[in-house]
Amino acid sequence: MNPEDFHKLDRVIHEKGRMAIMSLLAATPEVSFTDMRDTLGMTDGNLTTHIKHLQKAGYVGVTKSFRGKRPLTTLSLTGEGRSAFAGYIDALEKIVKSARG
Amino acid sequence: MSSHWAEHNLDVIRTLMERSALYRRALAPLMIAAGLVGIGASTVTCFVKIDGLTAFAMYWLLVAAVAQGICLLLVRRQALKSEEEFWSAPTRRVAHAALPGFFVGAAASLIVVRSAAEEVWMLPLIWSAAYGCGIHAAGFFMPRGMKLFGWLMILLSLGLFIGVGGVVDSPTTETAHYLMGGLFGVLHLVYGVYLRFTESAKESA
Fold it and tell me: B188: buried, middle or exposed (CB in 10 Å: 19+, 13-18, 0-12)?
């Protein structure tokens, strides 16, 4: 395997929890915080930490609104996040290809 | 250096992306409700005479509207319970996929009613075949069983199309009511009860 390919992997996304969050968001326009938490089986605190990390990198947008009287937090990928995720998948595929020769 | 971790990551991403696009509302209550409405409506026709093509079509369209209304209320209740929007992206996808099949069914029944044909029994089979196509298309965004349920509706309709025409001498409106009760009532109820057990088993797993 070419070590350069490995270095191309985005460090922000290359973490189990954040990769899962990015994967869910890549397939759908938006996901509610509760749905994300339940799907991934994360705690509120753990998910919040990962979201903050992704938000800081500019990959994830967070929208807070109200549905009736209940607060609703919605997560979505930003344009930057979408292209970073596509780049991450490309890098993974290159690694797999080069290992297969 | 091994690249297994990279392959594993790609697998995880693929699985999560597929899961994210799926419609995940509990289907068992919807299926059971639709089944009970279908069986109930079919039973009513044993006591109240609903004869003729137009009366048959109007009656069952009303029943379909009632069943649809109940299902939408159940979906809304589930959405509120899990603090999500009712018209979510997976719900939109399911509705868009099912729409062409349902549209063809509606258009075909309009053609049959306008032609004033006497073959009332064909209408339930046209409806269930078109409904099966719609459910099968929607099944791409739902658990795998829905596609099989769609196929079952299609194949049963086609089988009955040959069977009823060949076996029953002169199928009446009564036959058509029983077909509706069986195809839409019993099938939905049976599948709903099956889902009830499998969905709760998955939840407890």
Answer: buried
Distance, in Å, from the CA atom of B104 to the CA atom of A94, rounded to the nearest integer, reads 46
Q: Does B18 touch chain A (CB under 8 A)?
A: yes
* Better-predicted residue by pLDDT, B167 or B147: B147
Domains and CATH numbers, chain A: 3-100 (1.10.10.10)
Cβ-defined contact of A30 to B89 (cutoff 8 Å): yes
In terms of pTM, does the model score above 0.90? Answer: no
B89 touches chain A (CB under 8 A): yes
**Domain ranges, ordered by start, for chain B:** 25-204
Say which residues have a Cβ less than 8 Å from residue B56's Cβ, sequence separation at least 6.
B50, B120, B123, B173, B176, B177
Q: Are B3 and A19 within 8 A, CB to CB?
A: no
**Short-list B50, B47, B92, B80, CA closest to B176:** B50
Q: Give per-residue pLDDT as tens, A16-69.
A: 999 999 998 988 778 888 888 988 889 999 999 999 999 999 999 999 887 777
Average pLDDT estimate for B7-17: 82
Q: pLDDT confidence of A1, banded at 50, 70, 90? A: low
Nearest to B13 among A67, A89, A95 (CB): A89
Computed over every residue of chain B, the mean pLDDT equals 85
Residue of B nearest to A71 (CA): B83
Q: Is A86 on the interface with B (CB under 8 A)?
A: no
Candidates A20, A26, A32; nearest CB to B84 = A32
A35–chain B nearest CA distance, Å:
8
Residues 6+ apart with CB under 8 A from B171: B119, B120, B121, B164, B165
pLDDT exceeds 60 at position A79: yes
Q: Does B19 touch chain A (CB under 8 A)?
A: yes
